[in-house]
Amino acid sequence: MSIYSSLADAFPSVEFEKVLDPPQDVAHVPAADYPEFVAAAKTAGFDVFADLCGVDYLRRDPRFEVVLNLLSYSESARLRIRVGVPAADPKLASITDLFPGANFYEREAFDLFGVVFEGHPDLTRIVLPDDWEGHPLRKDYAVGSVPVRFKESPKAQ
Amino acid sequence: MSDTPNVVTGDLEAPTTEAPQELSESTSEVAENRREVHDMWVAGSEEPGWMRSYTDEGAQEMLDAGDEPVQEIYRGTVVTDDFIEDEPADDDELQILNMGPQHPSTHGVLRLHLELDGETIRRVKPIIGYLHTGMEKTAETLTYMQGSTNVTRMDYLSPMHMELAFSLAVESLLGVEIPERGQAIRILLTELNRVSSHLVWAATQGTDLGAVSMLIYGLRDREYILQFFEKTTGLRMNHNFIRPGGVAADLPDGWEEDIEQIIGKVEQGVSEYEELFNGNPIFRDRTIGVGVITPEECKALGVSGPIARGSGINWDLRKAFPYSGIEKYDFEVPTGKHGDVWDRYIVRIEEIKQSLGIVRQVLETMPAGDYRTEDRKVTPPPRKRIDESMEALIHHFKLFTSGFKAPAGETYRAVESPRGELGMYIVSDGRERPWRMHARTPSFNHVQALPTMMTDSLVADIVATIASCDPVLGDVDR
Questions:
Q1: Hey, are the CB atoms on B411 and A19 less than 8 Å from each other?
Q2: Which of A71, A74, A99 to substitute to test the interface with B, most B CBs within 10 Å?
Q3: B172 vs A104: CB contact, 8 Å cut-off?
Q4: What is the pLDDT of residues A47-93, one digit of tens each?
Q5: What confidence tens digit (pLDDT) does each residue in B181-205 have?
Q6: Is residue B104 part of a domain?
Q7: Considering the domain boundaries, does residue A65 fall inside one?
Q8: Which terminal residue of chain A, N or C, has fewer Cβ atoms less than 10 Å from its own Cβ?
């Protein structure tokens, strides 16, 4: 499809991968090219913000990944953008200036994964309390449990 | 939002309220006499007009038309938009108001931080997270077989759509084909669920605008659908009926008559609502030109579903990326053009009718056959086979103890829920539990878009705008 190939020509550093179900392209974008690539995708026709989330791959390098989904209404096409974020310095440029809809999603990814989006207007915790410690969706954050103390069973007489 | 235009150009329909008639001499005389009588006998005072000097309560006189622009905006006679263009007040005149989280009109535990300049909202900040239960983390501890019990609790008004999105994502990882009857049952249940969800919206939209009887009508008609769900799935909500591999069971005997009855009753109910709302001057006044969002704002904010269609975006995932064989059925995508609360009302009412049309087509063309895939690695064998076959017993045991494994990979599948694009992003590492499951829920975007719709409008329009967004807070916080 032309809508993908124009993007592929402009960014040789970006790897494209075809997905069949549903048919769409996945772009593996280096973190340095991320905001430029998103801006180019927006001008190429992917002008609808659909989704942004974080993933923690734990033993992989880079450890974190931010996955952005864009839509094109005119072409009925989807584009998934995957960006690796290293664990040592989990920082990524914010795209809130391009898509204001990314605001809450970036706050959520920051809240649950600890990925810092540079240039975000209000990067605070969104679903957890402000004084919460840790980032729960990281794989090294245990699910945890509350110890339950059962009553002692009556002793046999 | 700075990119919010102050005036939306376009041919907004003028509301039907007319300027009040001038009080004639005789009516004002009658009113004067009545007040005197009231003063003497009811209030116990012979001093004329004692009450009027303190308050105008009880006088019930309409203000003259065309006094001030703000009054006209109130009446909606010259309104093209709900935005009020006044000089912004000084910072020390602004007032901070917290609405929610325990407010009946916020449809759950949504909290709005409002900055008011008199009656005008200058800034809004939605604050969420009061219902956060970490369902995405929980999903990582549940197998794919157990997963749909978890996701169905996110959007409690459209559980079928949550289950369908999850099942489609898992099936896309597995590469499983669903038999035609299973797909038709899925479409039947999700479209009925769309109707029931829109009926709750109609009930709450009416109640929030003062038509409390609408709550009773809406919930009354929804009850027919919930009873059918209870008969089919065993539960009124959180069904866990649509599962990876198909649906849990076949439809109950006599489902055709039930569906016929539901269609008849809901169609009659919807025509009642239209009678109630369409010509109602209060409803028109409080919805036309209120809570406007433009198509460009919808795209940038990721607003989808009836809100985007109310702004004139002709986009429906059922048409663009068909799922479960929905492309076989004939239906239309209603759109509005103004992007206000009224257009969302029109779009949702029309969607109820279109969904009932799909349900009728499913009823007429329901294929025979199996309701779930025959792949024994995914669906458990029938009860009888377990007594006869060792294979079946092993399959059954393995499925219910460890579950099935999905090949490593990642997938994003989206369905058109009553609120908009509902997506499931699942990353699998080749084991029986998802490595990561993310739910892209439409209400999350809609709550985020509330400042765009509300800024520079009136306090009284808050509830109308929230109700028209139809947010489900379980969906927002997850």
A1: yes
A2: A71
A3: no
A4: 888 899 999 988 888 889 999 999 888 888 888 899 999 988 888 99
A5: 999 999 999 999 999 999 999 999 8
A6: no
A7: yes
A8: C
Q: How many CB pairs under 8 A join A and B?
A: 89
| Cα dihedral sign, B207-B213-B218-B219 | positive
Which residue segment(s) compose the domain that A76 sits in?
A: 2-118
Structurally, chain B folds into a number of domains equal to 1
DSSP H stretches of helix in B142-179: 144-151, 159-174
> Is B475 within 8 Å of B154 (Cβ atoms)?
yes
Residue B18: count other Cβ atoms within 10 Å of its Cβ: 10
Asked if B128 lies within 8 A of A126 by C-beta distance, the reply is yes
What is the C-alpha separation between B93 and B70, in angstroms, rounded? 19
Over residues B411-427, the pLDDT tens digits come to 999 999 999 899 999 99
A32 located within any domain:
yes
ipTM of the assembly? 0.88
Domain with A26 in it: what CATH number? 3.30.460.80
Q: Which residue of B has its CA nearest to A122?
A: B125
Residue A143 is assigned to a structural domain of this protein: no
Q: Which of A57, A66, A69 to mutate to test the interface with B (most CBs of B within 10 A)?
A: A69
Q: With respect to residue A135, please indicate whether it lies within any of the assigned structural domains.
A: no
Q: Which residues sit opposite A20 in a β-bridge?
A: A23
Strands B436-440 and B420-428: antiparallel
What's the CATH code of the domain at B316? 1.10.645.10
**Of chain A residues 31-60, which have a CB less than 8 A from chain B?**
47-51, 53, 55-57
| Cβ-based burial of A70 (10 A; exposed 0-12, middle 13-18, buried ≥19) | buried
**What is the rounded distance in angstroms from the CA atom of residue B39 to the CA atom of residue B154?**
58
Judge whether B425 is closer than 8 Å to chain A, CB to CB.
yes
Closest residue to B300, CB basis, from A56, A101, A105: A101
The per-residue DSSP string of B72-109 comes to HHHHTSS-S-S----PPPPGGG-EEEEE-SSBGGGTBS
Contact B151, B168 (CB under 8 A): no
Cβ atoms within 10 Å, residue B93: 10
Minimal Cβ distance to B321: which of A22, A69, A105? A22
What is the per-residue pLDDT for B10?
A: 41
Partners of residue A47 in chain B, C-beta under 8 Å:
299-300
Instruction: Inspect the interface and report whether the beta carbons of A128 and B132 lie closer than 8 Å.
Output: yes
The domain of B265 spans 135-477
CA distances from B58 to A152, B39, B40, B62, B115 (A): 69, 12, 15, 12, 32
Asked if residue B129 is part of any domain, the answer here is no
Residues 6+ apart with CB under 8 A from B184: B325, B362, B365, B366, B367
Q: Is residue B120 part of a domain?
A: no
Rg of chain B on CA atoms, in Å: 27
| CB atoms B137 and A143 under 8 Å | yes
Beta bridge partners of A65: A55, A84
Total number of domains constituting chain A: 1
Residues 58-77 of A with CB under 8 A from B: 67, 69, 73, 76
User: What's the CA gap between A46 and A9, in Å, rounded?
Assistant: 16
| Amino acid occupying residue A43 | T
Task: With CA atoms as reference, report the closest residue to B448 among B417, B471, B423, B421.
Answer: B471
